[in-house]
Every structure is written in structure tokens, then in C-alpha cells.
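=== RUN LOG ===
request id: a7f3
mode: sequence -> structure
chains: 1
length: 388
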Amino acid sequence: MKTRRLWTVVVMVSCVLAVTSTLAWCAKKPTGKPYRIGALFAVSGPAAPLGVPERNTALLLQDEINKAGGINGHPLEILIEDTGSEESRTVLATNKLMDQGVLAIVGPSQSGETMAIISATQKREMPLISCAASVSITQPAAERKWVFKTPQSDAMAIEKLIQYMKARKIKKIGFIYVSNKFGESGRQQAELLLPKAGIKIVATQTFGPEDTVMTTQITNLVKAKPEAVICWGTNPGPARVASTMRDMRLKIPLLMSHGVANRTFIQLAGAGAEGVVLPAGRLIVAAQIPASDPEKKVLMQYSKAYTARFHEPVDTFGGHAWDAIQLVAKALAKVGPDRAKIRSYIEGTKKYVGVGGIFNFSPKDHNGLTKDAFVMVRIEKGQWKLIK
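=== RESULT ===
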């Protein structure tokens, strides 16, 4: 008899909890006018390894924000356009989004795509938070009033590599880069910063965004007898550089840019990825980061949510989209659907702990990061390893 009464109580409590949960869900459901933001990602084309995780992250955040009640009761709608990794398509997609009245645009995935739309977004006073790395995207800030970016810049990556090389007494390097805006910006920063640090560039080579044969370039670099090689680009080129150096049985240390901080590089380079060193955000080594690190919580939160949704590891480039969308969402929550106020709020953001680092924006800095947003990583047996 007591058992039956106890079971009845348990059932009643369960029903109450179920009703309470349902009511809570109903209360949280956003009902206001949607807040629309645009997104430009290279979901197809050569830069798809960047754009796909960015798109996935946008879908993840849109769902998470709306399940939590939206932004002050307004559902968030992210209108995603595939740029196809092409600057011309990016321009058309940007105009389409602006004509649809979005409140801000996140993306594009690449530096060249971003540079192609800066003038249009500036003219129409549209907040743009790029997911590309070139330092020229946001500098000079006075001429980029409406433009921000979340990835660590190429200048910071060079500074981090300098720190690594000086500790190992590397004074002569060969530099090879992809012939696009990202590669050219990296070359410019290398030529500016390396000599100041006492590191000489003894040879420079280039390759096309989709080139697969690198033997000639690598041979020319080796002739100059560098103590290390720096490769600047995004896949597939850098993966081919790594595999070519492996095939040529070269023992010269190979350093990469943060443009290869994704699993695609390891998959494409195969055994050639072994021993490659690069500066990267903490995301790809999140589990190895000390618990005391202020980024640890958000890194693990994003990693867990992304993996559960898409059944694949998180990616550096998806993290850029996470930070960009979060910055816009926080601005909307604080100032509402006003583009000028959104821009001002982002510019005044301090100590925002994101996936890419701790952001401190200002009128003179629309990236908000320092080289400390990077850690140095080595690839060992197909896995990312934090260099301590």
C-alpha cells in the first residue's frame, strides 16, 4: 500500500515537472520581430574548409540563442550566403543581404573576399565583422569605421613565429606564400617584421591557390640554405608544400601560418604534416589548455556543442564565426536593432572572452587581439600538440 502511494506521488511530481518545463519553454519562446543578420561564408569552392565550419557554427548559434528565448524576446535569423570562394560572388551576395535590411554582416571567410566588399559596406554604414585574417582588413581603423574582424591577424602570427624562432636561434628562413590577398599580406608582414628581429629572408617563392606541384619552388628555397621554411597560405597549397618537403626527405623545420589550423591540412598533407609547427588559437588544443586559462570555459562549451551537433571536431575557422556572431548578438541585446549603435557597441567592447582570444576593441583597434591570442602548436602523429 505504501509502495503504491509512493509511486502515485512520484508520478504526480513528474507530471508537475513536465508541465513546469513546458510552461518554461513556452515562456522563453521568442515572439518579437526577428533580428536579421547576414552571413557570407565560402561553403563551396577552394575555401570550403573555412566556410563550412563557419556556416555550421552560425546554424548552431542561431538555434541555441532562439531556444534560450532569442535576443530580448526577438528571434535571431541568420541569412547565410555561399560566396563560392569567389570575390565577385561575395560582392553580389553582400548587396543582396544589405538590400534585405540585415542589421550586420559576419564574414566573409577570406581576406580577398573581405577587401572586395569593404567599400560597399562602409558606404551603406553596415557593420561588418570579418572572419578573415589580413591586418589590412581593419587598418587603418580610421578608414575602416564599420569594419571589424575576429581572427588573429597575420602580423600577430609573424610576431609569434619570431618569438619561437629566436628561442631556437633560427636566423635565416625561406618564405613561400600563396598568391592571393592572405598570402601577400603575410609576405608583407614577414618582410616588415623579420629583419627587425634579426631574421633574414634568404629566398622567397610563391604558388597559386590551387597548385599541386611545388617541387620547383621548394628546390629554389633549399638552394638558399635556410635554417627553416615558413609557408603562408590556406589549403590545399600548404599541404602540398609539406608533403613535397617530406618526399624530398628534407630535414629543414617547416613552419606554417594560422591559415592551416584545421583538420583538412593534416588530412591532405598526410605524413608530411608530422612535425609542422604553427601559431594557432587555443581552440584546437582546448583540452590541453590549463583550467586556469580564462578562455578554457568558452572553448570547451563551443567544442562540446559543435561536436554534439555535427559529429566532427571543432575547427579554428568555425571559432571565428562564433566570436563574430556573439559580438553582434551581444550588441543587439544591449542597444537593439540600430546599426550605428551596434557598431559603436562593438568598438567599445572590452574583455570579451571569445574562442579566438580576449578581445579589447577601440577606435584605433578593430581586431582587439594581441599575439597572446596565439599559442604554438606542433603536429605529432596526426594530432595537435601544445608547445609549452
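=== NOTES ===
The two ends are 64 Å apart (CA to CA).
Residues 2-28 form the longest helix (27 residues).
=== END ===
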